[in-house]
Amino acid sequence: MEEEMRGHAIRKIYQVVAKRTALSTKPSTFVQDFKLVKSREVKAPPRYPIFATKEKGNLNMAQQFDYLLILDFEATCQENSLGPMLPVQEIIEFPVVQLSTSDWSEIRRFHQYVRPTECPKLSSFCTTLTGIIQEMVDDKPTISNVLENFDEWMKEDSRLEKGNFAFVTCGDWDLKVALTNEAKFKNLKIPEYFTQWINVKKAYAAHTNHFAKGMTQLLKIYDLQHKGRHHSGIDDVANICEIVRCLGKDGHNYRITSSSNQTTASKQQRFFREAPRKTK
């Protein structure tokens, strides 16, 4: 009798163990759902935000400035191995395109080549880089005359009023370094409207929280084809205009980012992640 009871107890134990083993080998609902999700190849969210394209945007967004004047100077230069251009880099191409922020169309343009006076002969490196040959600057006005011509051009458009327009550059070199240094060296007075501007690279960083290294990368980000010759001032302006349009249509409200006043500019410093490289 005692042995029968012991055998019965052992059989019960075996039955319980077998039942639990069977349950443990059966996939749970969670595991089944996980396999189903995995089989559908659900992708993880992108690491970076999706960047705007030229088709997207809000054309009706009110901008702080009615007009943006895009500029990109070219200046005398020589190979790095020869050191800096002495006594000063001189602007040799002065292009500006005026855009309306109401529809991002071009209103008009100013374009003049400039004759350098401190180093009147262009280096072969400068010609190779910019495409500007000696004959293109020899009989042109000097920077002081070009600044006067540009000021007259500005006054021709009565729609341009203080506070309703801003200059746009791709970097701070054009207005903070090139024009400022040359004007200081030659004792020229710079118009007040050149003392603050919008750096489109900083504008892009403020809009996306990513920093683009330059015009070429910004063109790639917005799926824009580079047109013309790189380091041709007027061609660079045309390409920057396309970037400015895309960023504006994507909803960015342009604000002043840079100033020739070092104190003002330093207060606007921020740190951003590098923009991801777009792969095909």
From TrEMBL:
The keyword Hydrolase applies. GO terms for molecular function: 3'-5'-RNA exonuclease activity; nucleic acid binding. Residues 67-253 form the Exonuclease domain. SMART domains: EXOIII (SM00479). Residues 257-280 are annotated as: Disordered. Residues 257-269 have a biased composition (Polar residues). InterPro entries: 3-5_Exoribonuclease, ERI-1_3'hExo-like, Ribonucl_H, RNaseH-like_sf, RNaseH_sf. Pfam families: RNase_T. It comes from the Eukaryota. The keyword Nuclease applies. Residues 271-280 have a biased composition (Basic and acidic residues). Keywords: Exonuclease, Hydrolase, Nuclease. This is Exonuclease domain-containing protein. It comes from Caenorhabditis briggsae. The lineage of its organism: Eukaryota, Metazoa, Ecdysozoa, Nematoda, Chromadorea.
